[in-house]
Specification:
about 300 residues, alpha/beta, TIM Barrel, eight-stranded parallel beta barrel, four-stranded antiparallel β-sheet, about 30% helix, about 20% strand, binds succinic acid
């Protein structure tokens, strides 16, 4: 059997396939349909200091090859997460990465401190890329200086694996990638959704109550592969690829571009066993080509010799 385990810094995961934040709740909903042994980790829905009700409905709409969402980071708050949900999620026996959200640097720090103190979590994913909130999220991730500040502040209070989830709306992906690395991130996850819009031409109303929402799904994949390639060339920490991964071949494409592991998001809605099938398919791909381990193909893309634009 090919070895599909991955090392992200000091974090060792049995599989390269993680369930992406926001598409997998807190990990409990898929228990009856999915083999959790095939998951590298569960990345939880974003957790904030106080409970959040989220944005008004409608907040999800299907679009060609994807969907828009504007949930607004609905969650029960960190106290309830730690007290009520985490003990159950821990029982699943899968590494847990908590997606951490704040409106201010102090809020990110306080949530990270509470997560650290549980001793039950493998890592935090810093949500500096949600496009559906008035404060926090993308407002940190689009700006290298602010991204550096929040990452450094969280780094100071946790020795958990620190993954920073990048936004495709950052003007220069290399700049935010470097800022996160220099501030002490252990890995990057790329990419979160990009803002899109869909209009009902009869009512002339946007199909999302907040007018815009984050686009995810296969429509995003070429953009995400390009950004993973760019990010992975500019840092020495591992990059986790996200964006429209629905099949093992999609995942392999990200890995060849430079991803050390992947997250699967929107595909979970159409195929609740997507993560399992993708993990199995990655192993088959390696075995059929006599590639002993997944890390042998990370970043192995063979770009054309003279690929610079004229
Ligand atoms: C949301 O809750 O609106 C989406 C979360 C995200 O994009 O990070």
């Amino acid at each position: 059997m090919a070895d599909i385990s991955v090392k992200l810094g000091a974090l060792e995961l049995p599989s390269p396939v993680m369930a992406a934040s926001g598409t997998f709740g807190f990990g409990l909903e898929y228990r009856d349909v999915l083999d959790y042994n095939k998951l590298g980790a569960i990345v939880t829905k974003g957790v904030s200091l106080k409970p959040r009700e989220g944005n008004p409905m409608p907040r999800i709409v299907e679009t060609p090859c994807g969907m828009l969402n504007s949930i607004g980071l609905q969650n029960p708050g960190v106290e309830s997460f730690v007290g009520d949900l985490l003990p159950q999620v821990k029982g699943l026996g899968v590494p847990i990465i908590v997606n951490v959200f704040g409106e201010t640097v102090e809020e990110y720090v306080r949530v990270a401190e509470m997560i650290q103190s549980t001793g039950a979590v493998a890592g935090v994913e810093l949500n500096v890329s949600c496009p559906n909130v008035k404060c926090g999220g993308i407002h940190f991730g689009a700006n290298p200086e602010m991204l550096h500040e929040v990452t450094k502040a969280v780094r100071e209070v946790t020795d958990l694996h620190l993954m920073v989830k990048l936004s495709p709306e950052a003007a220069v992906i290399e700049a935010v990638s470097n800022a996160a690395e220099q501030a002490g991130a252990d890995s990057l996850s790329a990419i979160n959704t990009i803002r899109g819009m869909s209009i009902n031409i009869e009512t002339r109303k946007p199909r999302i109550a907040t007018t815009t929402g984050g686009l995810s799904g296969p429509a995003l994949k070429p953009l995400a592969v390009r950004m993973v390639w760019e990010a992975s060339r500019s840092v020495s920490i591992p990059v986790v690829g996200i964006g429209g991964i629905s099949t093992a071949m999609d995942a392999i494409e990200f890995i060849i571009a430079g991803a050390s592991a992947v997250q699967v998001g929107t595909a979970n809605y159409t195929n609740p066993r997507a993560c399992e099938e993708i993990a199995d398919g990655i192993a088959v791909y390696l075995e059929e080509r006599d590639i002993p381990k997944l890390s042998d193909i990370v970043g192995s893309v063979e770009v054309y010799e003279d690929y610079t634009l004229k």
